[in-house]
């Protein structure tokens, strides 16, 4: 038994085995980070590489994503740091034109786990919805996710809309094609490469 079994089960699109193996690793006391990174996330990286190589197609990507989500749900309670009073409000979503939500969901789960109130707008979210919701919820941070190079411009227009609305809400961005350089270029307040880093970033921004 190892996280390799989870990796293999995601690549076999075998949701039942992903669920069983993830639970078995949790019960065996395997580090949650290791289950997440070595089992689930690395399998999705492999799926991406096989897609790029023309060995897998969209339906298979979707099946792998469903299998991964099943494992992620089991990890959710373990990603919590402890409850208590809300540390701040974060509005999160995947930007306009983009339907990828696994990374965004992971960031949302870890933010919730760290004690933030998270308002998740889902996928394909336009600038107006981000700005309107952030104003309604008095959000401290708007967190934008994009997995496609073609949807990165939607991040820029959202960051611009937040500034034009004269809001104090900070913006942070992330997703596989996104970089710190891009965040600097579009004037976002922060970038992180992964979900734990996103939590750290928000904590730092709210102290500053
Ligand atoms: C699963 C998947 C899909 C699924 C999505 C299912 C779902 N519900 O999300 C489906 C099948 C729907 C899909 C569709 C498409 N996909 Co796709 N997909 C992937 C795949 C294999 C995995 C993505 C994933 O979930 N990774 C795991 C998560 C945990 O990682 P993550 O999202 O990067 O998130 C982490 C960090 O980036 C960060 N993060 C994420 N968001 C945020 C936000 C903030 C604020 C912060 C701070 C951090 C942060 O933290 C997360 C956790 O650590 C990737 C390959 C890859 N390796 O990225 C391709 C990939 C992203 N897809 C790709 C493509 C081309 C497409 C399609 C255009 C294919 C097509 N021809 O139709 C469509 C586009 C649909 C659309 N309009 O969005 C390309 C993108 C190429 C590019 N550079 O633009 C990739 C890279 C595959 C490839 N190698 O070519 N896809």
UniProtKB/TrEMBL annotation:
This protein's UniProt keywords: Cobalt, Metal-binding, Methyltransferase, Transferase
UniProt GO MF annotations: cobalamin binding; metal ion binding; methionine synthase activity
Coiled-coil regions, chain positions: none
InterPro entries: Cbl-bd_cap, Cobalamin-bd, Cobalamin-bd_sf, Met_Synthase/Corrinoid, Meth_synthase_dom
Record-linked SMART domains: B12-binding_2
One GO cellular component term noted in the UniProt record for this chain: cytosol
UniProt-listed Pfam families: B12-binding, B12-binding_2
GO terms under biological process: homocysteine metabolic process; methylation; tetrahydrofolate metabolic process
Domain B12-binding N-terminal, chain residue ranges per copy: 1-87
Domain spans labelled B12-binding: 87-208
Keyword Calcium part of the UniProt annotation: no
Record family assignment: Belongs to the methylamine corrinoid protein family.
Protein name per the record: Corrinoid methyltransferase
Organism lineage: Bacteria, Pseudomonadati, Thermodesulfobacteriota, Desulfobacteria, Desulfobacterales
